[in-house]
């Protein structure tokens, strides 16, 4: 924040004030953003980018816990929301974010983490929104009930739109109960055939894993090493981490099943602490690092994709059950994206990087029209 | 030659246009005689009727592209239609024009168990996908009660739900990609097996657009693992208040059953007469509750639910002892509409939603409205979601009674809004509920939605007169306003 003067940060206290800020920016031909934009940021098309900080819009609008929904202002920190929900033994089961970020940023960024395997993603939890578009119009979609098909589902559209269609001011989430107990197990594998076989079995396991993550070591002497808990053991270059939830008896029963499913692997590092799943999910924040290349493929191609990356010297990790592969890009490594794209082009999927690929840059005709509808004056700087 | 009016533009169905359509689909897959067209004057919502000028039955996406392109060049409106089970008039050809019936596009193109998705044509009947998955350990989760007839294309357009969507989510939670023909006649693919990619969630936006964004020609859906075990219970209550309290207590205890359905005395009586299940005829209401998951966990959940029901005043909680008993219980629930015919010559089903804790209040209100307007109302609905289906019974020959049905429906839906809910949980706005849109949304909300419609459907040729009041205000003159007729549903 050091290189942005205080007067360029505005802190509205209501959706109406956000709308005024948008209208003023249109009149002054300025741009605004809810994220920090450094002056050197190439995305800005205007000299002045005002940062809209929603820190004053951080309250709970309504939390009817027995309805299992909550409506909050978009500036509320996610960690604070988590604490409020935990008091009622409830949760918004979304991982993969820095705890300090706001719920607005969480939704706009469509944060996803390990437990998306069991719980789905934000598109499954946002049931109502209030936002201000690039014409300064305050608009709503969805509502406060868990089932509602009135009107177009603009909730889905704003999830992951990264601020390019509007500034979220209020969000209603559907919630889940907190599990009584959760457990994590890790299995390591000597070869990819064994890993693939286990993954095939896990797809139809009698257990009900909430997360199914992997680490895949590079075959060659490691040029690149990812963050997190890479196995780092050349005899067991691949690892699976599997999390289960339920009553303690249900968790233990599931762990027995998983041992059968992962017959080709060897269980290690059994962390029996109550927070092992939570800790694992927290570690997965790396996925959102600017320096991580993200590949989305279909789960059946995962081992092939990770093996081919390993053969070129890159280790990877990610969410095996959902086909997410993350590869860390070291400073000065100009080749990696091209390698990932080449690997993916042989199989199926897409490659992206948080700092490079933005939905607002989509060039298909529908996305362009929607952008033009929601932000005709290009007032939002992404 | 007939004239159709979309409200914004008028169109003329010329012989040239018909010849062009016939060249695309062949005469055998084109209907244009008045007698044949009458079948298509309405869907499951029979209050409003409008006959299309022509119905075509394409067999593949290329034919849909050609049909839509012809409509564009002759400026003729068109409306997609699946099985026609919409309960909101979604298929009504407002102002006439072309009806594109997708029922001949009914192939399951791919089933990929390892990656948990299937690719289907839009005319695939919902239950046929689950049938095709039998024995694999997977199923297609959205299970509308109409699943034996309705199509996946129609489900995508209306974002259908069903009894098991309480735990598994509605259609949008299971659609990962869509191929559709835009109103300009382009074939567009959004999403796919790997989801939405790096862009906007266009498949998410498309689901629930009620046919106003284009014609769906292919859908990528997620398939879901079958639960290892179920426990299905029937909880019997002597008072409606106790029943709704039990619902609230179950959800409040942090248990999300796979399904939690309520049926009141009126519906239970009709079901017993139809299916001889052994429902207690003196009970005021019953709850059909299913928990599913791990074999080791379901018994404990079933026990907790039994205790919560009993604490709330349940007279008895019966556990289904056999798979046959469970299947019969579900058959009763899913075919409840069929039994309603035993109660009354005509009926009208509503689709309101309230926050789950407001279920007791809305049911008391419905009872009061029923009494005040002297209209019998029975209830069978998705209680766990707060999604009500009050069924108003009447005789359509009695015009004065019909008026009271309309008034009572309006009051019930108005109350749903007042309690923080919505006027539709799964049936859609269609033409039926357009007048409620500006009670649910602000003018700005509707202006934004209108702009979104224009991004997909700039000329408004695709499904005119649906979903948004801006379009609904025009073109409605052509609709023959009949009396509310028989209307099946839940
Ligand atoms: C007895 C009964 C029980 C029901 N139970 C439920 C229930 O439990 N849950 C629920 O959600 N609904 C229920 N419904 C309502 C109805 O079945 C659903 O809305 C269903 O999704 C409609 O599917 P359909 O194929 O009949 O579509 P149609 O009725 O033919 O069309 C519905 C809408 O979808 C559009 N559409 C159809 N196909 C396409 C396509 N290929 N591309 C673009 N748009 C298209 C139409 O234009 C229309 O707007 C019930 C209806 C009945 C009669």
Quick overview of this protein structure:
The complex is a heterodimer of chains A (382) and B (490). By secondary structure, chain A is of the alpha+beta class. Chain A has eleven helices and 18 strands.
- Reading the helices and strands of chain A in chain order gives EHEEEEHEHHEEHEEEHEEHEHEHEEHEH
| Overall pLDDT metric of chain B | 91
Distance between the termini of chain B: 39 Å
Shape of chain B: globular
Q: Oligomeric form of this entry?
A: heterodimer
Indicate the proportion of strand residues of chain B. 15-25%
Can you give the mean pLDDT of chain A? 89
What is the fold-level CATH name, i.e. the topology of the largest domain in chain B? Uridine Diphospho-n-acetylenolpyruvylglucosamine Reductase, domain 2
The helix-and-strand class of chain A reads alpha+beta
Helix content of chain A: 25-40%
Which spans of chain B have pLDDT < 50 for at least 5 consecutive residues? 1-9, 471-490
- State the CATH superfamily name of the largest domain in chain B: Uridine Diphospho-n-acetylenolpyruvylglucosamine Reductase, domain 2
- The CATH class of the largest domain in chain B turns out to be Alpha Beta
Q: From the 3D coordinates, which CATH architecture of the largest domain in chain B would you assign?
A: 2-Layer Sandwich
